[in-house]
Amino acid sequence: MVETFENFVNGRWVPSRGAAMLEDENPARRGSRLGLFQSSTPEDVQDAIGAADEAFRAWRRTTVAERQRHVAEFLRQLEASRDELARIVTLENGKTLRESRAEVESALVEGRYHLHQVSAFYGHTGPGAWRDITTWVQYQPLGVVGVISPWNFPMNVMCRKTLPALLTGNTVVFKPASFTPWSGVFMAGLVERAGLPAGVFNCVTGSGSLVGAPLVQDPRVRAVSFTGSTEVGRTIQAQVAATLTRTQLELGGKNALIVMNDADLGEAVEAAVTAGFSNAGQWCTSTSRILLQRGIAASFLEALTARCRRMVVGDGLDAATDMGPVAGPGQYQDVCAAIRQAQADGARLAAGGEAPDAGAPPGYFIRPTVLTDVSPGMAVFREEIFGPVLAVSEFGTLEEALDLANNSAYGLSSSIFTNTLSAARAYIDGIEAGLAHVNVHTGYKEPSMPFGGIKQSGAGLPENSQTGLEFFVDRKAVYVRA
Ligand code: NAD
User: Fold this and answer.
1) Residue 360's pLDDT is what?
2) Which residue, 8, 25, 58, 170, is the most exposed by fewest CB within 10 angstroms?
3) Which 8-state DSSP code applies to residue 215?
4) What are 91-101's pLDDT values in tens digits?
5) Mean pLDDT of all residues in the chain?
6) pLDDT tens digit string along 5-44?
7) Which residues are catalytic?
8) To test the ligand 1 pocket, which listed residue (251, 326, 449) has its Cβ within 8 A of the most ligand atoms?
C-alpha cells in the first residue's frame, strides 16, 4: 500500500483541488513507488499565498525573540528526526545515508547560525547631520516569500532559505522539487510539530509549471528565493520583470579544480573524488572540470582513475556504497548522452562511462567517469552535466589555467591546489567565481560565509552570512527631529 501525502496550507493538511498525483520513485530501484503526492494546481498555490498573506499581519508584529523560540523548536524537532529524515532523503534522492546525514547536519549548523545571528542583525543608528536629528535604518519584513528548492539538497536548501525568512518576520510558501516531495512534506510536518501559527509556513507540492510559475508571478509574493538550474533561473527573472519582485537565484555551475605541479597530489586527488563524486556529482558546487599542470598530469590521472575503479556504486542505504545513483531517469539519460557526446567530440574515456557494478540493483547508476583530452570547444567543457563526470584538460602556466577556468558562462565555485603563496594569491584575484578555495575542495562552505555564484551562476544577494538575512528585509531610512 503506497501512502498518500497532502499539502500543508494554513496549518492544515489538505488535498489539491485537482485530482492529479505525483509519484515519488527511489532512483536505486527503477519503477518503485515511495509515495503519492499532490500534483497541485495554480488554485492551490493561490490558497497558500492567501493564507501566508493573512498570517503575515500578525507574524510581522511578533518579536524577534518569539520567532527565535519557534525556530529553535523547529531545529529541536529536526534534530530529533535526523535519522528518519536522512533515510527519506536517501530513498528519494539516491545519495548515500552518510551523505544524507551530512545534509541534515549542515541544515542544523546553518539554522543555529541564523537563529543566533538575527539577534545582532537589526540595522544601525547614527547621529544626524544636524544637532537635533537622529537617524536609523529600520529593517522590516517583506511579506509573503516564495521558496523553490531543487532535488539535490531537498531539505538543506529549504532550511537555508526558510529559516532566515521566518526569523526576519516573513511568511513562506514553499515548493519542493518534484523529484523529492517527501523530504519537503516531512519538513512541513516538523514546522507543524514546532507549533508555528497557521499560515506562517505553507508547503505545496507539484510541477514547476503549475506550482512554481504561479507562485513566482503572484503580485502578493514580495520575494522569491530559488535554487535550481540557470535555465529556470532565467525564466523566473523574466517572469518577475512585471512586478519587480525581489529574487535570490542560486543556479548552476561548471566548477574547475586547478592542480599545480607543486601541489600535494594525494590531497588533490581526494578533493577531486570528494567534490566530483559525492551525491553522484550532483552538488551545484561539484568539481566538474579538472585543469592539470603538465608536469603532474600523468601521475594525477593514474591515481584518480585507480581511485575511481575502487569506488563501490550502489544503493545509498547499503553501508558499503561509496556513490549512489543519479536522481532519476531524465538525469540518467542526460548524463549518459553527455558522456557519449564528449567521446564523439574527441575526449578520451579514462574511467567509468559504463553502467552499474555487476549485481547492483537496477537503478539509475553511472560509474565515476573521467574524460581526458578535453578542449574548451567541447560541450563537456562548457555545459553543466550534473552527474559523476570529470572533464580533464591540461595547461602550462597559471595564466593559462585561469583563462581555461574563466572560459565559462558560469561562476559558482572553484579551487586550486598549490603550495606557492603567490600562485594562490594570483588565483584568488583572477578566478571568476563566488567561491575560491585554496587546497580545499570546491564543495566546502561555512554558514558565516556568503554562498552564491557570479556570472550565470547566480543573481541577487547570496545565501548564508549576513546577506542570507538581508535578502528578506526592506530597509527604511528614518530621520527623527526631537
Ligand atoms: P530545476 O531548475 O529544474 O528545478 C528547480 C526547482 O524549480 C524545482 O522545484 C522545479 O520544480 C522548479 N521550477 C521548474 N520550472 C519552474 C518555473 N518555470 N517557475 C518556477 N519554478 C520552476 O533544477 P533541479 O534539476 O531541481 O536542480 C539542479 C540544478 O540546481 C542544477 O543546475 C544545480 O547546479 C542547481 N543548484 C544550484 C545550487 C546553488 O546554490 N547555486 C544548489 C543546488 C542546486
Assistant:
1) 57
2) 58
3) H
4) 999 999 999 99
5) 96
6) 999 999 999 999 999 999 999 999 999 999 999 999 999 9
7) 250, 284
8) 251
CB 155 within 8 A of CB 107: yes
Threshold 0.70, pTM exceeds: yes
- In the three-class reduction of DSSP (H, G, I as helix; E, B as strand; rest coil), residue 30 is classed as coil
Nearest atom, ligand 1, residue 176 CA: 9
Distance 252 CA to ligand 1 centre (A): 8
Name residue 254's amino acid: K
For ligand 1, the distance from its centroid to the CA atom of residue 229, given in whole angstroms, is 4
Contact 239, 215 (CB under 8 A): no
- Determine how many CB atoms are found less than 10 A away from the CB of residue 159: 26
8 A C-beta contact, residue 260 and residue 415 = no
| C-beta of 293 in contact with ligand 1 (< 6 A) | no
166 lines ligand 1 (CB under 6 A): no
Give dist(CA 445, CA 464) in Å, integer. 10
211: DSSP letter: I
CA distance 108 to 45: 28
Q: Tell me, using a 6 A CB cutoff, whether residue 236 lines ligand 1.
A: yes
Least confident of 64-68, 357-361, 403-407, 434-438: 357-361
174 touches ligand 1 (CB under 6 Å): no
Centre of ligand 1 from the C-alpha of residue 247, in Å: 14
Distance CA 27, CA 202 (A): 27
Report CA dihedral (347, 348, 349, 350) to the nearest 10 degrees: -130
Q: Which fold has domain 4-251+457-481?
A: Aldehyde Dehydrogenase; Chain A, domain 1 (3.40.605)
pLDDT at residue 128 in the model:
86
Q: How far apart are CA 447 and CA 7, in angstroms?
A: 30
Specify the CATH class of 255-447 in words. Answer: alpha beta
Amino acid making up residue 162: T
Q: Range(s) for CATH 3.40.605.10 in the chain?
A: 4-251+457-481
Q: What is the pLDDT of residues 226-268, one digit of tens each?
A: 999 999 999 999 999 999 999 999 999 999 999 999 999 999 9
CA distance 482 to 55: 35
Rg (CA), the chain: 23
End-to-end CA distance of the chain: 70
CA of 394 to the centre of ligand 1 (A): 31
| Range list for CATH 3.40.309.10 in the chain | 255-447
